[in-house]
Amino acid sequence: METKVTNEKPTFSVVGPVYDEVETLRDFYDRVRAAMEAIGEPWELVLVDDGSTDGTSEIIRDLAFDDIRVRPVLFSRNFGHQIAVTAGLDFSRGQAVVIIDTDLQDPPELISELAEKWRAGYEVVYAVRTEREGESWFKRATASAFYRVINRITEVEIPPDAGDFRLLDRKVVNALKTMREHHRFPRAMTAWVGFRQIGIPYKRAARRAGETKYPFRKMVRLAINA
To answer: What is the phi/psi pair of residue 220, to 5°?
Structure first.
């Protein structure tokens, strides 16, 4: 695993787990950079490559070479999305940490709204999908069933239609870092640790390229492990 360290302490860390996103990654970086520069506070982008095989890691290296705020974390093989998110949290340094997928279904432009709620005193600000563009009825049905199953078998309530796209205060990140379970599910772990939480509605875009990294069988496995 390779990492890159910079000296400036950022206010915001953006954590992006990446797996075979060669077609979207540069656009993702451009939109994150524009969104964060509009906020106007120091930031970093932690890109965790989960063993990509399509040239994604080379793009991450190029971005890091051109922009010192990009911090690459490169896995030697595929360990899974939840482990990639965990690694991103471990290497993040910001007082507020945003988790966002790099396929551009979740809009980086929403980060400013997450940041506003954080400044208002909320320690967990999660994005809630009110619409899901480009998803089949089967995908929507399985997603709904996933949350119903999770909320029946876990001790805490996970907000329906809230994915990994969220902002976490440093206190929350530090609490999560003490939890080293083998089967990781940051959404449930974030709900379990408590703190002051609020949701923000948004419209989730259709996938621009490639295929979903969470087909039905993976969702079932995640629910069972959680």
So the answer is: -65, -45
